[in-house]
Automatic annotation (TrEMBL), chain A:
Membership in a protein family: Belongs to the ABC transporter superfamily.
TM regions (residue ranges): none
Keyword field: ATP-binding, Nucleotide-binding, Translocase, Transport
Domain of life from the UniProt record: Bacteria
PANTHER family: IMPORT ATP-BINDING PROTEIN (PTHR24220), LIPOPROTEIN-RELEASING SYSTEM ATP-BINDING PROTEIN LOLD (PTHR24220:SF689)
Protein name: ABC transporter ATP-binding protein
Domain ABC transporter positions: 5-236
From TrEMBL, chain B:
Annotated GO MF terms: transmembrane transporter activity
Coiled coil: none
Sequence similarity: Belongs to the ABC-4 integral membrane protein family.
Highest taxon, organism lineage: Bacteria
Occurrences of domain ABC3 transporter permease C-terminal (ranges): 250-364
GO cellular component, one term: plasma membrane
Domain MacB-like periplasmic core: 18-209
Protein name: ABC transporter permease
Record's subcellular location: Cell membrane
């Protein structure tokens, strides 16, 4: 167990200081944790998640990944490429590419050889029950299939950290549950740390740690015995 | 998929815009190829037109502005004839006018008995004989264009001429020219004691060295005048420099506009694809890789535009040369150098136009890019 991400007194303002979206947040996440970030709409959850992944730049404070301060777009891109998989609420799949290519595009910088990329993409699709969907465009997939594709893409480079912003927000109850069980399985099978932003308490209950945000600050931070707590044996990969 | 898949899909996803940009680049390149090709062609056609009639060297006025404005005095002739190895010299008068007010034509006045008449390949009729009233030999192309036969009349320099022969030439200039006796043309132009140039024929056999030696001797015999082979003569005419300068300036302006068009298209494409760029950044694509993506799109469009442009330019030249008014004066001349220049432009200006939008794309924070849906 070691420290994966560390936010130290991080703040993020918008509109030249008129909007303080995140204020003085300090948060350390271990490499085997499952963390739920909860809070009302507009409380700053997505902004924190963006800062964790380097998609956004903090106005104040520092973000460290695996013990190192990461600065600049190129450095963050390199971290994301090899260490972080991101699942967005709205899937954010590329419409001009097929399901398989959507995974391959994430591998492009990391895995040399079109053939190797193709094979890895097909493996991942098969793992998520999408083998027969490989050549379809995202528009031709169902909501649940799209979300599974988004997860498969996020896992393409075998990340240390899986980050998901409202992964079930646009899915019905049943599909949400299956998506959450997939994310839980990913955590168990690959030992991937997971951070989930959600306002679904059922989803939050599946996580080992619960961080509550309001008005851009951490209100509470508690570890609970979650259903998906990792078993030590599954952490080897 | 490879690095090229995404840029290609991006281009295909917006077919109309892609086509219009490629067309814009193609027209710019076509303009460049046609303009520079036509000016070079005019020059080339003059050189080969004079060559063909058996002249080895040309004596003309130094720094003459155009073909017709060169003046050499009749008095120079005896000195030139006296140069060793010179077989014959012929004073020639050239004039550009219209034939029957319908087509531009070069009139060449040749002295009776000149060596110039010897190599002429007559298709019909004969060469002018003493006693002919205003006889003319038309080049085959202009005769066809004007639908003239031996025995018809053609008005040249406001003077009706009798067509006594039709001749075939290999150079486009001569194919579209009218050859008349020197004296009549001198009268019409009031240039009795001057010629446009002297054409010099050297004794056979002849090698390169002989020509060089003769040239030096002729320069001594005609101090202050230009002595050169036909290509040098064409190069010495200053209007060609002017034409070239104009053509190059216009083409540069057109090409600059084309790069702005590329930049604009890519800027729009980048704006429209801000979201896609945000997704790629979120997936860990480095700013450099994203930059390359946009640049590849730019290069694709430029390359396609360049190739199409060269083809269009060549076609445009052919068409321009076929118009009646340009016949003989404009000759399509697609030089390797102008193709190289066009391709250099395409591979520099295209990416240059793409650079700014690409740079902008990489400046954007992924979070900002993803908010814009
Ligand atoms: N780029 C931005 N420009 C201006 N204001 C922003 C920007 N991003 C976020 N905000 C503001 O910051 C605050 C926090 O936004 P954030 O998206 O983090 O909330 P959230 O907790 O994710 O909400 P939700 O549950 O609705 O997704 C909001 O008031 C939002 O309007
Ligand atoms: Mg949010």
């Amino acid at each position: 167990m070691s420290l994966l991400v560390e936010l130290s007194n991080v703040g993020r303002d918008f509109d030249s200081g008129r909007i303080v979206a995140v204020d003085d947040v300090s948060l350390a996440i271990e490499d085997d944790e499952t963390v739920a970030i909860v809070g009302r709409s507009g409380s700053g959850k997505s902004t924190i998640l963006n800062l964790v992944c380097g998609l956004d730049r903090p106005t104040r404070g520092e973000v460290r990944f695996e013990g190192r301060a990461v600065n600049g777009r190129a450095a963050w891109a390199a971290v994301r490429a090899s260490r972080i998989g991101i699942v967005f609420q709205n899937f954010f799949l590329l419409q001009s590419l097929s399901a398989g290519e959507n995974i391959e595009v994430a591998l492009l910088g990391n895995l040399g050889g079109a053939r190797q990329r193709r094979i890895r993409a097909l493996e991942l699709l098969a793992h998520f029950g999408l083998a027969e969907r490989a050549t379809l465009r995202p528009a031709e997939l169902s909501g649940g299939e799209r979300q599974r594709l988004a997860i498969a893409r996020a896992l393409a480079n075998r990340p240390k950290l899986l980050v998901a912003d409202e992964p079930t927000g646009s899915l019905d109850v049943q599909t949400s549950q299956s998506v959450m069980s997939i994310i839980g399985n990913v955590h168990r099978e690959f030992g991937t740390a997971v951070i989930v932003v959600t306002h679904d308490e059922e989803v939050a209950a599946l996580c080992g740690r619960r961080v509550e945000i309001s008005d851009g600050r951490i209100r509470s931070d508690s570890r609970v015995a979650a259903i998906s707590t990792p078993t030590p044996a599954s952490r080897t990969r | 998929m490879t690095e090229l898949t995404l840029p290609l899909r991006g281009l295909i996803a917006r077919p109309l815009r892609t086509l219009l940009t490629i067309l814009g680049i193609a027209l710019a390149v076509a303009g460049f190829v046609a303009l520079t090709g036509l000016t070079a062609g005019v020059q080339h056609s003059f050189a080969s037109g004079i060559d063909e009639n058996g002249a080895d060297l040309v004596v003309s006025q130094r720094g003459a502005f155009n073909l017709v404005s060169s003046t050499v005095p009749r008095s120079l002739g005896s000195g030139l004839s006296a140069v060793p190895d010179v077989e014959a010299v012929s004073g020639v008068l050239l004039n550009i006018t219209t034939a029957d007010d319908a087509a531009n034509i070069v009139m060449a006045g040749w002295p009776a008995g000149s060596f110039l008449w010897n190599d002429m390949h007559l298709l019909a009729g004969r060469i002018p004989a003493p006693g002919d009233q205003w006889p003319v030999i038309l080049g085959e192309s202009i005769a066809t264009a004007l639908d003239k036969r031996v025995g018809d009349t053609v008005e040249l320099q406001f003077q009706p001429y009798q067509i006594v022969g039709i001749a075939s030439f290999s150079s486009v200039l001569n194919q579209n020219s009218a050859i008349v006796p020197l004296e009549g043309l001198q009268q019409l132009l009031s240039r009795e004691d001057v010629f446009t140039l002297y054409e010099v024929r050297l004794k056979r056999p002849l090698d390169k060295n002989d020509v060089a030696v003769a040239r030096t001797r002729l320069m001594a015999a005609a101090p202050g005048f230009e002595v050169g082979d036909t290509e040098q003569f064409a190069n010495s005419i200053r209007i060609f420099d002017l034409l070239q300068a104009i053509a190059q300036t216009i083409s540069l302006a057109v090409m600059a506009m084309a790069s702005v068009a590329v930049a604009n298209t890519l800027l729009m494409a980048v704006n429209e694809r801000t979201f896609e760029i945000g997704v790629l950044a979120a997936l860990g694509w480095s700013p450099r890789r994203i930059l390359r993506l946009i640049l590849i799109e730019g290069v694709f469009m430029s390359a396609a535009g360049g190739v199409i442009g060269i083809i269009l330019g060549a076609l445009a030249m052919e068409m321009a040369a076929k118009t009646k008014f340009a016949a003989g004066l404009i000759v399509p001349y697609l030089s390797g150098w102008s193709i190289v220049q066009a391709l250099i432009f395409v591979f520099i200006a295209g990416p240059l136009g793409a650079l700014y939008p690409a740079w902008r794309a990489t400046r954007l924070l992924p979070a900002d890019a993803l908010r814009r849906i």
